[in-house]
Every structure is written in structure tokens, then in C-alpha cells.
Amino acid sequence: MHAHALVTLLAAAVSVAPAAMAVLRADGPVEPLFAAFKQKYGRSYGTAAEEAFRLRVFEDNMRRSRMYAAANPHATFGVTPFSDLTPEEFRTRYHNGERHFEAARGRVRTLVQVPPGKAPAAVDWRRKGAVTPVKDQGRCGSCWSFSAIGNIEGQWAAAGNPLTSLSEQMLVSCDFKDNGCGGGFMDNAFEWIVKENSGKVYTEKSYPYVSEDGSKPFCIPYGHEVGATITGHVDIPHDEDAIAKYLADNGPVAVAVDATTFMSYSGGVVTSCTSEALNHGVLLVGYNDSSKPPYWIIKNSWSSSWGEKGYIRIEKGTNQCLV
pTM score, two decimals? Predict the structure, then answer.
């Protein structure tokens, strides 16, 4: 998806950490910081050897966090729910989509013609009631499904329908074009919904998410409530002004990013992001051009205990994280 962002066409539109706990910073003594991390996130390890190993991993991650912080004066990095994972473990569990996004680069795409005109200086679809609460993909590499479903939820609501939480599990279990917890691609998900499920998207209430443990239950194709319908999808040219204009006019947009830097992010605007390969699906819900620096507002799927209550802000206009 390096060259394009995604957007769903909606039938109705025709075209269209517990709050009381303080943020743990990376600049304190490592042992008490590790103890606070374990308490905050409920970590325990089976053996003394495993605990010693995780402490070393944690120390390496705090060193990396300080490096990111030095390169990003407008952002903070430190202890996150992933601070006891090695970069390899984190990549395998949480941003394993690189091969899917790379394989999609040569696809023939339908590029939408974004109408001329200047986008507003700032947009935030959360304030317009078009964004559901932050969700949690858990140990399943299903970011692609959360990105696609978030896109549909947002544009369904932006088109005048009730904001409805829709089912990622439907895609994880039933979408044979993708690979469940092994990664996927948002275009594939949209195509499966239209061609194989008659455009129907089920509600989360009727088909709840159960793949937090990394499992992929068998598809249950019947007995679910339809919460939205779609007729197709288009791609937006890989141009940040075009993406902003389309987002402002139509609602949240599914995009892929390089999420390497996300592992230790805790707040602020990222201005120096690893930008090597697309590996993670997220949802653009807004932007602010009046801020210095200007930024995108991105909804992630790693629970509200990560980042800014589940969100990250990334500098706009410089292709940070390959947005």
C-alpha cells in the first residue's frame, strides 16, 4: 500500500493503562522501572531465568526508547505494554503484514479522483461521532481487519447511519483471501466482503472478537446481525493532500504504515519515524495542519493502554512512517 491509501464505498452513501497510573518513562533506574512495569501490566514469569531474560530485554527497550526520544523532540517514548518483548517477538505478533503489503504493490488499482479544493485546516472524526472505541487485536496479527473494519465503521457513520461497532472476527475467521492472525491486506478484506459476503458486514455484538490469544476459530457464516453494507472500494493516490481532502469529505481512511517506532511510543507527535517497509494496518481519523508540527491522528488496535489512549500522532506532510 506504499502508493495508496484505502477507502470503502458505502452503499448508503452511494460513493461513498488504567487512568490513575502514571506514564512510566525510560530514563529511570531499570530495576524499579521493570518492577513498576510488571505491576502495571500484570506480568509474571515462570522461572528466574525467564525473568532475568525479560529484564535484559526491558533494559534494551528502554535504551532504544531513549534513542527515539532524542530524535523526536515533540514525542515521548518509554514503557509500553510491549516493553518485555524483543523486537523480533513484537514484529511477529503485532506488525507482521510486510509480505502482504509488499505482494500488493503490483496490483491494478482503482484510483479515486479527489475533487479539487483545499481541505479544512483540521479534522477529527472522533468529535463527529464516526469512530468507535479503541479495540485490541491481542496476540493475533489481525491489524488489517481492524483497519478495514474501522474504515467501514467510520464511513458508514459519516454517511448518516448510526455509529455501529462491526466485526473484525468475521474477517479473521471467514475471509479466505487473507491469513487470519498471520496477516492480511485491507483491499482483500473489502473484496471478500463485496464478492463473497454480498457486501454484508456483521455487528461486533453478533460476531464478537475472540482471537486475542492468536487463534483462528472456524468461520460461522450464519446467524449474525448485519450492521453495515458496502458496494466496493477505491484507492486514494499516495499524496498526503489528496488523502486529507478525501478524509475530510468522506470519513476515516484505512492506511498501512511502518510501525517499528510504535513499540515504545507513549505520546506526542512523532517527527522522526522508521520509514522502511509497510507492515501494519491502522486508521486515519483526522489531522491538524494548524499545529506545529502538523500531524495525522491515527487509531491503532493495541488497546487504550498504548500510546495516547490507543492513538498516535505522526507528523503530516513528510511521509513519516510511510503514511
Answer: 0.91
